[in-house]
Amino acid sequence: MSTLCLLFGDQLNLNMSSLVNLNKAKDHVLMAEVRTEASYVKHHKIKIAFLFSAMRHFKNTLKAHNYQVSYIDYAHKDNKGSLYEQVRFFCSQHKITKLVLAKPGEYRLFEDIKTWSQKLNIDLEISDDNRFLASESDFSNWASARKQLRMEYFYREMRQKHQYLMENGKPIGGKWNFDGENRQKLPKGIKPPKPTSFDQDQITKDVIKLVKNEFKDHFGDVDNFHYAVTREQALQVLNDFIEQRLENFGRYQDAMVQDEPWLYHSHISFYLNAGLLLPDEVLQAAQAAFYEQNAPINSVEGFVRQILGWREYVRGFYWHFMPTLKTDNYLDAKVPLPDFFWSGDTQMNCISQSVKQTKEHAYAHHIQRLMILGNFALLAGLDPKEVNEWYLIVYADAYEWVELPNVSGMILFADGGQLASKPYAASGSYVNKMSNYCANCHYNVKEKTGAQACPFNYLYWGFMQTHQHRFEGNPRMGMMYRTMSKMDPTQLSHMLDDTQIFIKNLNA
Ligand code: FAD
Ligand code: DLZ
Ligand code: SF4
Questions:
Q1: What residue spans define the domains of the chain?
Q2: Are the folds of 2-127 and 136-193+245-321 the same?
Q3: How many helical (H) and strand (E) elements, i.e. helices and strands, does the chain have?
Q4: Considering only CA atoms, which of 43, 304, 388, 266 is closest in space to residue 10?
């Protein structure tokens, strides 16, 4: 009579709530590389290689800590292809009375798991996913007490509750938000440090070979894989960030630079989302850098806001609004995703740069995801279902709990404004202000209509006209509509025509 713990590929931490109460002498841990999880969307090859390698390394860690682990690799003779079938098979071979697991990060898997207890006739115990600081009930209690949800207020409560960057009940530096100091373009001549990279060990090499054979038709390149695959390596990435980048993180967090994918970002989302790092230790490291005067408050607060604010907020938001969040389409957007989202072959340099980096690294930084690719998807009216699938596929840090709120809520306004108070829409001048992409582009960012005009310019004003009835009354968009009312009606009409022609030709 024993307990089986099913550990998912993104729960790679010895402190996982599902592991800590096991009796190592008689209970078992099951981990499995399965077809259903690896291909429910055609994940980027790097994402699969990263998770399989990290899973195999973590299996060794578990064994070193005296857990009894059954690890089913992809080519194992007993691989049954899905987590359910793997659990069923294990139960048929052993006397298992109870299955324990920490809540998975995706609704589809959670709904499936809820049916297992009856089907397998065993007890099922689902513990909280303790890779987060706010529990789901923390979020839903906070959300149910409000008419309007805004990350900023959630974040302030998290700062107070967890006492990050607080002194005598007040935020350090006298304000909650230093965003005003955090919008600088990267000056010419400044070269960001190289990202921390690791040689591929034998486990990673084996996994890459497997991925190239089994997932040939999946998106992306995998040969230059250089990511951390163990907790020790992930801690090194974190440490290098704190020492080499955090100081400049704030001021350049919105900057974009030709051929520079990494800039001053932390590059830890892969590891946080797979359990190799936990949010508390990351926040403590950043806070310590502030107290040791190694990083200024605008950088440290900006970083803390991402982890303690946005990351926790979107995860709570996901569970609060599922399953409807997945089908929301407030703007009735229907345009199919253009091919250049896969190839990067477009004369729009900002898009080409962002897609090609995504293909090569399974990574793009926040502003590329939000203000280039996301902004385009919003303005061109791309179908939320296709856009969500694309984001879930292409980034190695993508799981539905984080991808869906960012896409349907933050970029597409598909949730009708539950997450964001207004659409994150911008014309080419924003891209020109924050990057050097436009200097290398076929299009002219200063032109609003005609063959050479930057598509973001007419798409922006086309969007504003198309959705005027929806957004005119939004106080945060009033200024834009006042500007629009003073614009030349003929020019506006040309921009609407150009928008329609551009969208029509997108998939021609
Ligand atoms: P940094 O810029 O160094 O930020 C530090 C950390 O803050 C990140 O590692 C991440 O854990 C957290 N963070 C920052 N912004 C967000 C956010 N909006 N939501 C949740 N966490 C955040 N992040 C993912 O982890 N997975 C995704 O699938 C994902 N999809 C996104 C889709 C869109 C459309 C947008 C706009 C953002 C998305 N993000 C996603 C958030 C963000 O872009 C990435 O977390 C970030 O680029 C990862 O790189 P980094 O670790 O260098 O981040
Ligand atoms: C993303 C992923 C992939 C590619 N493969 C596996 C796998 O083979 N086995 C596994 O346990 N988990 C995998 N995962 C992570 C799961 O999809 C993840 O646990 C759910 O999406 C919930 O977040
Ligand atoms: Fe992008 Fe327009 Fe600038 Fe070209 S000109 S890089 S399309 S914003």
A1: 2-127, 136-193+245-321, 340-506
A2: no
A3: 25, 7
A4: 43
**In the CATH scheme, what is the code of domain 2-127?**
3.40.50.620
Ligand 3 pocket, mutate which of 430, 454, 495, 502 (most atoms under 8 A from CB): 454
Confidence of residue 507 (pLDDT cuts 50, 70, 90): confident
Distances from the Cα of 357 to the Cα of 174, 270, 291, 361, angstroms: 38, 16, 35, 6
Residues whose CB falls within 8 Å of the CB of residue 228, separated by 6 or more in sequence, listed in order: 196, 198, 234, 236, 237, 270, 271, 276
State the alpha helices, DSSP H only, in 72-179.
83-93, 107-113, 116-120, 136-144, 151-162
Q: Could you tell me if the ipTM is greater than 0.90?
A: yes
- The answer to whether residues 416 and 330 touch, using CB atoms and an 8 Å cutoff, is yes
Which residue's C-alpha comes closest to atom 6 of ligand 3? 438
Top mutation candidate among 355, 436, 456, 459 for ligand 3, by most atoms within 8 Å of CB: 456
Over residues 31-57, the pLDDT tens digits come to 999 999 999 999 999 999 999 999 999
CATH 1.25.40.80 fits 136-193+245-321, yes or no: yes
Residue 354 has pLDDT above 80, yes or no: yes
Spelled out in words, what is the top-level CATH class assigned to the domain 340-506? mainly alpha
pLDDT 10s digits, 71-84: 999 999 999 999 99
The pLDDT score that the predictor gives to residue 1 is 76
Residue 135 has a pLDDT of 95
3-state secondary structure of 320: helix
* 407 CA distance to ligand 2 middle (Å): 20
